[in-house]
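FIELD: query
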Amino acid sequence: MRVLLSVAAAALGSTLELGAEEVVAQLGAAQRDWAKEVGPDLEHLSQTQHTALLQVEEPEEGGEDEEGGKKVCCKRLKRAKKMFKKVHAEATGYYQTQRTALLSISTQMTEAEDLQQQIADAKKEAEKNIKKAARDRRQQCEAGEKFGTNLAELRGMLGQSTGAQMSLLMAQSRKLTRRSRGSQALEKAGLLDEGDAIRSHVEPAVLLHSRSVLHAVRNLAACEATAEDHAPSEEKCKKQKEKLQKEWTRAYETLTQLQSAASGDCEDTTVEEGYKAELQRLVEELNKKKLARIESVKEQQAELQKVQDGLAEAEPLLVELDKSIRNLRKECKMLTLSTDYLGKVRKLVDACKKCPGMKVTFNLPSGRTRLAIGQAIKFSNPSSKPVDQSFEMTFAEQPALLVGPLGRRGGHCAVAEVVSSSMEGLALGIREPACGYDNRHTKEDVAWIALQQGEFKTDQNVHFQVGRVSVTGLGPHEVAFTSDKYPMKGTEIVVVAALSSGNSGAWMTVRIKQVTPGGFSFVLNSEKQDGSNSYIEEVSFVAIPKGTGTIYGHHYEANLFPKSLTHKFNRYEFEEQEKPSVFASVSYRGREPAGIRMKVESGSKVSLMLDEPKDCWGNGAHTSEDVHLLVIDEVMK
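FIELD: result
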């Protein structure tokens, strides 16, 4: 998401995704109002300025119109700023709305995913419980079968001799005793499940009755002893028979009840059905919550799409308003200056009229450079898709063109390239080295400036030189300063140079080899670095003493930073500017090819680094280089 809505920085190059249908109508109305109010103002301002210039011939009729022209200009500028502020505030508000909606969407999507996980966990837990209930039923079925076997054994005792009954009961007792002891040990160790625990308590009861019956049979067997001297009395044997019948009956009834209960549990699926019903209820509840969140997300996504469509109209409006404000600011300043100057000229002309025979002759001023300055915001590449940049004026001859360091959004090695130029504008592209790179690069920022060639003075009367030379081969190439009065003796000179052409079609940069009072030398760094470049390339430069000042109302700062720049970012500070345009050149200490990449951190700080095409030469690491830095404010004060 790209947001460029700063008045000072003209951050206007991205897509804003904001929020409501009314934004289309509001911004459309704002655009119409601006076109109606501000558009004619520009034309009127131009006409007013032209009229003011013509008033030199008739000074007595011009003062009121010129003063009115300044008021009109200020009024129009105020309207444009007010309109920009209004549209900017609306767009920012919509952006905040969108940001809140996106956070809400993210939260609800997370909640929906969490609900889906809860459904999966509930199904897994229910499946586990259903399997356990089914296993318990199977165990009850097995218990019922065992109880039936025990009943059959008891029935088998009917009609048998006492000895046979006793043998049968002793075998049953031993089997149940072993199982009971094993169950008690497992239960103590905590290794029994619920079904096993039930059997461990039921079978001792069966064992108890079996032992009771066995004891009664043993007593009855004593009545059948062959030795009459030791045989119990008839009365005692009768009681033993009655007791045996009683114990047998109790054992039979207990086993019958246990078999009936186990058979019922074997067929009962209530527990499993209960788990299934609870799972269905829980899944329906969770699904309802999940679907509600998904529907809410869909509605908010549809709303966000409407916002994006509305903001698509806001972006060009903000760009045009920003451009108009900057133009109006310059026009108003120029109109104010021209009005003041014309007032002085009128007074002098009027004074000269009082001197008989004196003739006034006017000459065109000299010593000031004409310049056009701008920034390509997030311009695209490759150089086959150049971005056109127009000058605010038409130069009489081919101007010198400086292109600043490329931004650092993309990780591939790259430089900004002048694809073509004229007296009215230039086209910019991005060039990656051919060795190991695909010449496909993300959008970057870069500053540019067009300057009239020649020797000039700053507004503080500091001499500086602007030039453009044609060279063949990688160099080194020598450039001589053209005047004895420039540069001033003993002054450190900042030289910023850049390619003004891309005839070779290769990745290429300019490196400053040496600077002397009489001139400087430079080399071209190529991705091939073999010295065989046969194309004619154009190199533009600005040579200016170290210091600060203004050039035609634009604040500048020129500085030198010896051995300060490597392949790692280093911060450079300068005096605060409203919209700094950064230009830089580096020395030629390290021989590996290297370009400069940049990150503007604020109106007074910039970070630079050396960017080597390591797939062509070297390993990406670079020795410390000197930095020639020139920062010019795009906004004229």
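FIELD: remark
The radius of gyration is 50 Å.
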